[in-house]
Amino acid sequence: MKAVTQLGLQDNPLITGLWQVADLERGGKTLDRQSAATQLEAYVNGGFTCFDMADHYGSAELIAATARQNLLQQNHSAYPALKLYTKWCPQPHQHSFADVHRGISERLERLGMDSLDLLQLHWWSFEHPGYIDVMDHLMTLKQQGLIKHIGLTNFDTDHLAVLLSCGHEILTNQVCLSVLDRRGLSDMSDLCRAHDIGLLAYGTLAGGFLSERWLDKPEPDQISDWSKMKYHRFIKTVGGWQSFQELMRTLSGIAVKHGVSVSNVASRWVLQQESVAGVIIGARLTEQEHRNSNREILTLTLDDDDMSLISAQAETLGEIPGDCGSEYRRPPFLTASGDLSDHLDALPPVFKKEAINENQTRWRISSASEFEPICGYSRAVRIGNRILVSGTTATHGTERVIGEQDIRAQTVYILDKIIAAVTSLGGSQEDIVRTRIYLTHHPDWEVVSRVHGRFFGSLRPANTLIEVSHLIGPYAVEIEAEAILE
Q1: Would the pTM of this model clear 0.90, i.e. be above it?
Q2: Interval 223-273: pLDDT, tens
Q3: CB 313 within 8 A of CB 246
Q4: Are residues 392 and 309 in the same domain?
Q5: For 266-304, what is each residue's pLDDT tens digit?
Q6: Per-residue pLDDT tens for 418-463?
């Protein structure tokens, strides 16, 4: 797997995660940068040379930069192996080249680097297609040498497919993955293997719940740690505390067999998944260190019986809803911050609506196509509580076709655009009551229908599939929709 070699994970695929810096610095507190950097240097001395951080992890980037500079000044033998991975999490309106260049320049400045080892993109709402433009610009900055490798964080499989259809070079996708959360082990893993993309797995210890500390213990009634709150929601969602304890006893039995900890077994199970390039384990700098215990993961190998036992027990649990990253974009919002509805509702609409008549009972939106005024149509029209969305194709901007050779990507992009049209006119995805799909090649019906099902499986609007001999332009599929607001 190229991610392993290009990110320096051959000898040690354990990545030290610095997300807890943000937690330690809550309330305006700031860690002493030099003391925290010394802790990072201790990880490097112990053979842990890869670190994961983000633009919103407090002063993590600054701490990493200080440690990097210290190691450089010491002419430390491990300095060449040091890898600093970071993330950029822009708002949807930040998708111009100037916006992207500014965001990446800030990462470079904070890290004190000329070129980022790995820049990972997080995108809040796929209804906003600016993530495609951002990736275009990141590719340009990569060609200019400001970025060595580009990755994603919390992208689902469908939207990873969209980016791949655009020709973007993606090395990794960072997703939540554990024996409690196995969303990344099906369609996501299949797509990653097909394109040699490595998964960087976080949440493998479920915020510390997958450890002896919680074996045969009562369920906590109060949790103050933000990470544990998130994974406690996961435990409730997949079956509750009793089912979790049954899983823990299975892990414990295997841990005893190998003379290691439950946490080691849980992490190793993830690491032995074929599509996983590395496992991210968090560090609470200046408070707790688990380097010696974590090192045991490197010498542990779970045999076929171990893997089968764990997988069989895990499969008795329920599933986390949706695909990778869905918890950040749609209910039930199983995140550290809980319900993100307010944040998502605050994002600007994709399209600007305009009134058609003076009493504002009719509204319309346009998608900037040059043909809308020429041909006399709108992307969507709202009349009272009814929204009608025109036949929609995978046109990005005015001319670019998304997924020209990939009908799955085309369908994903179209449905995002339809939902964006409905929400821009005051509706929601849940208000859609009818869709009509036009296909040029009938064997594609199942691919398109499965994407449709992932978008609307719980809503089940009325739907019609129609095969046509040809669609205008280089399109394999076109979809129209209707929504009724209650």
Answers
A1: yes
A2: 888 889 999 999 999 999 999 999 999 999 999 999 999 999 999 999 999
A3: yes
A4: no
A5: 999 999 999 999 999 998 876 656 788 899 999 999 999
A6: 999 999 999 999 999 999 999 999 899 999 999 999 999 999 999 9
Q: How far apart are CA 396 and CA 475, in angstroms?
A: 12
Q: Which residue has the tokens 């299949």?
A: 190
Which residue has tokens 């002063």? Answer: 59
Residues 28 and 172 in one domain: yes
* Peptide linkage before 461 cis (omega within 30 of 0): no
If we measure between CA atoms, which residue out of 477, 176, 421, 218 comes closest to residue 319?
176
> What is the model's pLDDT at position 293?
87
Bigger pLDDT: 132 vs 285: 132
416 and 279 inside one domain = no
Same domain, 322 and 391: no
Structural domain range at position 473:
349-484
On average, the pLDDT of the chain sits at 94
Q: Is 33 helix (H, G, I), strand (E, B) or coil?
A: helix
Give the 3-state secondary structure of residue 400.
strand
The reported pLDDT for the residue numbered 288 is 59
Interatomic CA distance for residues 218 and 248, integer angstroms? 13
29, two tokens: 């507190």
Domain count, the chain: 2
Query: How far apart (Å, rounded) are the C-alpha atoms in residues 44 and 55?
Result: 22
Which residue from 435, 434, 430, 436 is spatially nearest to 485, judged by alpha carbons? 430
Q: Which long-range contacts (CB under 8 A, 24 or more apart) does 315-320 make?
A: 316/239, 316/243, 316/246, 317/180, 317/238, 317/239, 317/243, 317/244, 317/247, 318/237, 318/238, 318/239, 319/182, 319/183, 319/238, 320/180, 320/181, 320/182, 320/183, 320/234, 320/237, 320/238
3-class SS of residue 150: strand
DSSP state of 220: P
Q: What is the pLDDT of residue 363?
A: 94
Pick the closest to residue 24 from 230, 284, 226, 208 (CA basis): 284
Say if strands 400-401 and 353-355 run parallel, antiparallel, or are unpaired: unpaired
Task: Please say whether the beta carbons of 392 and 479 come within 8 A.
Answer: yes
- Cβ-contact 277, 172 below 8 angstroms: yes
